[in-house]
Amino acid sequence: MSQFKITVLPGDGIGVEVTREAVGCLETVAKTFGHEFTFESHLMGGAALDAKGVPLPDETLAACLASDGVLLGAVGGPQYDNNPPKLKPETGLLALRAGLGVFANLRPAFLHEPLIDASPLKAEVVRGTDMLIVRELMGGAYFGQPREVTEDRGLNSMVYTAPEVERIARVAFEAARLRRKKLHSIDKANVLEVSQLWRKVVNRVAQDYPDVQLEHGYVDSCAMALVTRPTAYDVIVTENLFGDILSDEAAVLTGSLGMLPSASIGGKVGLYEPVHGSAPDIAGKGIANPLGAIASAALLLRYTCKLEEEAKTLENAISEILTEGYGTPDLKSQPKQVSTFEIGEAIRSKIVKAKAA
Ligand code: NAD
Ligand code: IPM
Ligand code: MN
């Protein structure tokens, strides 16, 4: 029996709805496989702003640091959009990532065969899409100084140091080694100095990985290639802002933004969250796709708990319910349209059956 203490940060909007299902799935995994997981929920994002006046209360960060892993829903909402930077839910999320020291954000985009008609691309173009985006998460324009906004001028700084590039490059090369051994490093080195450093450092690290085939590409051309030949990609490594943009694009190729999970690692405690946001347009309706959040829980089992069999069981359960035709309304091609909760229930019953088999 393994024991794990998991901090849950539901956040805002559909974050609350999808996290509930992900926690439910982890509870079923624990019960079925004989582990003890304890869950403690804390305020984060807009919910924390409303209750405590800050987007990341000290006690929330302290609880995360005192736990084995953190499961987050999503933060944000239109009511906070005009807040000053310090009082934005998103600022709390950046502070959480920095506070945990999670510099490597793994975003696997895998197209489940039953969702081929839910993808906006033609079946023959998208079939076989299976890539991992390794997004740098603690640098670039998100954190670079100086930064400010005045009445008539806004300023951000895209900054990377060689050690920051080196550590994310190593994560990507290691990941490529465990996959199809192809790595695309995506930058804008034809224009940006910061990308010129990025490319130089990635080339240097590549010497330690002669078994991995490295290609450099520009971010504009990568955005195009993702929709023309997505199967050309195995692992993509890129900086923070490019990774944010490319991963939403990659996500929707797999049927819906709601499908994509993520694991943020490399720090003191792993942070697991779906790639999507709080989706104010569908919040409270019980129709959000919880599969990205549930797949993030599987990544928690894999990376934090080192429970590979349990992680695989949960991932297989996702595949099985998709094959049986279940889906939320964002997955239009699925014949059995159900609610967020019903997806969670279907997966939980698969976990129990898989273990009994
Ligand atoms: P979003 O990801 O919330 O939504 C984009 C579109 O995708 C919407 O139409 C939404 O309904 C749909 N969608 C997203 N997730 C879905 C799911 N699980 N199931 C079904 N449909 C889903 O992006 P947005 O609208 O640009 O942002 C809304 C808020 O969320 C903003 O405040 C933004 O800053 C925040 N945000 C937070 C995170 C995070 O917490 N990690 C990530 C992205 C955006
Ligand atoms: C994501 C989100 C966040 C980001 C925002 C909400 C700060 O878009 O996790 O992809 O830009 O990193
Ligand atoms: Mn994003």
In short:
With 357 residues, the protein is α/β, with parallel strands linked by helices. It contains 12 helices and 14 strands.
CATH architecture of the largest domain: 3-Layer(aba) Sandwich
CATH topology of the largest domain: Isopropylmalate Dehydrogenase
Chemical compounds bound to the protein: nicotinamide-adenine-dinucleotide, 3-isopropylmalic acid, manganese (II) ion
Overall residue-averaged pLDDT value: 98
The CATH homologous superfamily of the largest domain is termed Isopropylmalate Dehydrogenase
Task: Give helix and strand order, one letter per element, not per position.
Answer: EHEHHEHEHEEEHEHEHEHEEHHEEH
Give the tally of structural domains: 2
By CATH reckoning, the class of the largest domain would read Alpha Beta
Which percent bin holds the helix content? 40-55%
Please list the strands of the largest sheet in the order they lie side by side.
Answer: 2-1-3-12-11-4-5-10-8-9
Q: Using DSSP, what is the number of strands?
A: 14
Which structural class do you get from the secondary structure elements?
A: alpha/beta
Low-confidence stretches: none
List keywords for this structure.
12 helices; Isopropylmalate Dehydrogenase; alpha/beta; 2 domains; 43% helix; binds 3-isopropylmalic acid; globular; binds manganese (II) ion; two-stranded antiparallel sheet; single chain; 10-stranded mixed beta sheet; 18% strand; 357 residues; binds nicotinamide-adenine-dinucleotide
Question: What do you see in this structure?
Answer:
The model has no long low-confidence stretch (mean pLDDT 98). The radius of gyration is 20 Å and the shape is globular. Helix 1 (14-33) packs parallel to helix 12. The strands form three sheets. Strands 2-1-3-12-11-4-5-10-8-9 form a ten-stranded mixed β-sheet, sandwiched between helices. The two termini are 20 Å apart. It has 357 residues and is an alpha/beta fold. The longest helix has 20 residues, at 14-33. It has helices at residues 14-33, 46-52, 58-65, 89-100, 123-126, 162-177, 193-206, 219-228, 240-253, 291-304, 308-323, 340-356; strands at residues 3-11, 36-41, 69-74, 104-110, 130-136, 148-149, 154-155, 182-187, 213-218, 235-238, 263-265, 270-272, 326-327, 336-337. Bound molecules: nicotinamide-adenine-dinucleotide, 3-isopropylmalic acid (IPM) and manganese (II) ion. Manganese (II) ion (MN) is lined by residues 244, 248.
